[in-house]
Amino acid sequence: MSIQLTKLQLFLLMFVMQTGFVYTSFQNIIIEHGNRDATIQFIIISVIFFLQLLFFERTHKYFVLNSFTKTLYLIYWSLYVTVFVIYITYVLTSWIFPNTPTIVLIAIFLSVCFYASISRPETAVNIGVVLIPMLFLFLVFMFLTIPNLHATNLLPFFYDRQDTWWMGFIYATYAFGGAEVFVVLRKYLVSNDKIPKKSLFLYFSLLTSFYLLSISFSLMYFSLEEIKLIPEPILYILHSVEVTFAKRLDIFFVYIWLSWSLVAIVNYALVMRLVYFEKKRRLPRLQQLIFFAIIGITANFLIKFSVLDFLNNYLVYLNIIFTFILPVLIIFVNKIRGRTVSELEKSSS
């Protein structure tokens, strides 16, 4: 299976995948550990992410997955999507459909994801475009809460060093999960020309600003004691906005976030298709149906607050391994062995 991507499509895929899961949920966990220094911690981790992008661009030809590393990544992405589905279902049952059986909700949106995933690859690539006006509206209504914000809450403490303060850096990496898809998708660019540093910096700036806004607004809106008790601070902030055309603006944005999340799942499914179906396999649609069925059954079985809280606290370590550590190890090993993507394509042709 193969596709051709433009640079804009590559960055759009990455943006949706890197924000779809954690954008409404990770603020409270980083602020809980970083307190008023959460924005400083996030900026430091974001700089590391930018350096990682530069490294990936220079060495992407050495990112070659063998059977073992392919299996590891497919398991990791499957787990990531499963946690994603659990969280989506939890939010929907909490905010919109408290009386609807979870299996019904899971079946509905996974059916949409399955249909999109078996369509032409270009469908999964371009579907993220529909989110652009939605995200613009999202930001516009976020700024309507400015009169209720307290800018002094952004002043960092620096001296406030608790035993778990350093964990703020760990949980800040949630925002940059999915960075490994850059080197997975890099070889599918229409033109294999070098991506300029300016383009990488622009993407880094947009992603970082998008997240930094959510952390800053959460800090300015809630006290440190309140934020620890609120799992989706962004939705609670939108809940406070009063407009004439909607009584519950938060529900309106839950639907936007649901669409955003579905596109993220479809994009993850696309990346998994590119890795798993790199060689032709029998009955690809049946295998994808089985995949989504397993995801749905597992998510329905595990959808408990205690399970979600556990995953929210510990999935970050897998995130660090598969996003930051393992890609670098794969690149270094292949560079030592002199194994590149182009050589692999020649050997398989």
UniProtKB/TrEMBL annotation:
It comes from the Bacteria. It is found in: Membrane. InterPro entries: Spore_GerAB (IPR004761). The chain crosses the membrane at residues 7-26, 38-56, 77-96, 102-118, 125-146, 166-188, 200-222, 252-277, 289-308, 314-333. Pfam families: Spore_permease. It is a multi-pass membrane protein. Keywords: Germination, Membrane, Transmembrane, Transmembrane helix, Transport. Belongs to the amino acid-polyamine-organocation (APC) superfamily. Spore germination protein (SGP) (TC 2.A.3.9) family. This is GerAB/ArcD/ProY family transporter. It comes from Solibacillus merdavium.
